[in-house]
C-alpha cells in the first residue's frame, strides 16, 4: 500500500514534469530577430545588438540563450553579449543563433575608416616678405598625436589686415599695400590657429618675360 507521503511526492514530481514540458513546448524557438537589423560604425567604435527568440505564436522565449558570430573577424568582432566592434573598413554579417536549435537571426554591419584626430598644425614658412602685387604660398600640414600627417584636412585661412595682404583658401598670400600683417591658418571645426608674419614691401612684381 502506497503511503500518503509517497503519493504526495509522486504528485509533486508529476506536476513539475508537466510544467517543465509545457515550458519547453511554450519556448520552442521558431524565429530569432536582431535589433538593430543593420548598423554603421567607424573602425574602433562599438554597437550593441539585441537578439530575441520567438515561438510559433510570436511570444518571446526569454529563456533562450544566444550564440553570437561574425562572418568576417577582420571587419567586425562580436562578443557573446552581442557587442560588435569595428576592426577595418568593410561589411560583415552578425549572426545570433538560439542555443540547441538551428534558428538564427542576422544583421549587417558596415565599418568605415577611422579618421585620425588633428592634434596640431604646422605652418611654413613662419616669416615671409612679399612685394605689392606679388604672391607667395604658405604650406599647412595637420598632424595627429603621434606626429603623423592627417590627410584630406580642410584648412581655414585668415589675414589679420586685408589692407596689407590677402590670403586665399589655398594658402596663397598676395601683397596689397606696404605694411605688416599676420596670416593665420587652422583646421575647420577645430580650435586653435597658427600664424605667419607677413611683410609687404613697396614695388610691384616684375613681369615674367617668358610669360605670354
**What general outline do the C-alpha atoms trace?**
rod-shaped
- The low-confidence runs, each spanning 5 or more residues with pLDDT under 50, are 18-24, 205-212
Average pLDDT over all residues: 84
Specify the CATH class of the largest domain.
Answer: Mainly Beta
How much helix, percentage-wise, in residues? 10-25%
- Could you tell me how far the N terminus lies from the C terminus, measured between alpha carbons in angstroms? 124 Å
Major β-sheet strand ordering: 2-9-8-5
Major sheet size, sense and barrel closure: 4 strands, mixed
The appropriate CATH architecture of the largest domain is: Sandwich
For the record, the count of structural domains works out to: 2
Order of helices and strands: HEEEEEEEEEEEEEEEEEE
Overall description:
The chain is mainly β and 212 residues long. 11% of the residues lie in helices and 47% in strands. It has one helix at residues 4-26, and strands spanning 31-35, 38-42, 46-48, 50-54, 66-70, 76-78, 83-86, 90-98, 104-112, 120-124, 127-132, 135-137, 139-143, 155-159, 165-167, 172-175, 179-187, 194-204. The strands form six sheets. The protein has a four-stranded mixed β-sheet with strand order 2-9-8-5, with no helix packed on it. The longest helix is centred in the N-terminal third of the chain and has 23 residues, at 4-26. The termini are far apart. Residues 18-24 and 205-212 have low confidence and may be disordered.
Amino acid at each position: 500500500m502506497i503511503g500518503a507521503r509517497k503519493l504526495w511526492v509522486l504528485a509533486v514530481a508529476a506536476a513539475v514534469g508537466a510544467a517543465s514540458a509545457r515550458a519547453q513546448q511554450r519556448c520552442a524557438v521558431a524565429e530569432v530577430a536582431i535589433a538593430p537589423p543593420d548598423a554603421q560604425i567607424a573602425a574602433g567604435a562599438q554597437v550593441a545588438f539585441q537578439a530575441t527568440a520567438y515561438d510559433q505564436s510570436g511570444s518571446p522565449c526569454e529563456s533562450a540563450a544566444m550564440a553570437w558570430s561574425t562572418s568576417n573577424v577582420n571587419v567586425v568582432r562580436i562578443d557573446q553579449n552581442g557587442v560588435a566592434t569595428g576592426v577595418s573598413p568593410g561589411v560583415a554579417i552578425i549572426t545570433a543563433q538560439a542555443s540547441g536549435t538551428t534558428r538564427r537571426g542576422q544583421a549587417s554591419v558596415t565599418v568605415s575608416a577611422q579618421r585620425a584626430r588633428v592634434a596640431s598644425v604646422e605652418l611654413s614658412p613662419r616669416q615671409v616678405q612679399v612685394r605689392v602685387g606679388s604672391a607667395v604660398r604658405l604650406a599647412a600640414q595637420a598632424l595627429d598625436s603621434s606626429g603623423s600627417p592627417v590627410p584630406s584636412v580642410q584648412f581655414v585661412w585668415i589675414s589679420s589686415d586685408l589692407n596689407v595682404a590677402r590670403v586665399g583658401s589655398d594658402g596663397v598670400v598676395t601683397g596689397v599695400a606696404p605694411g605688416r600683417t599676420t596670416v593665420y591658418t587652422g583646421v575647420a571645426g577645430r580650435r586653435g590657429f597658427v600664424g605667419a608674419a607677413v611683410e609687404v614691401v613697396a614695388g610691384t612684381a616684375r613681369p615674367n618675360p617668358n610669360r605670354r
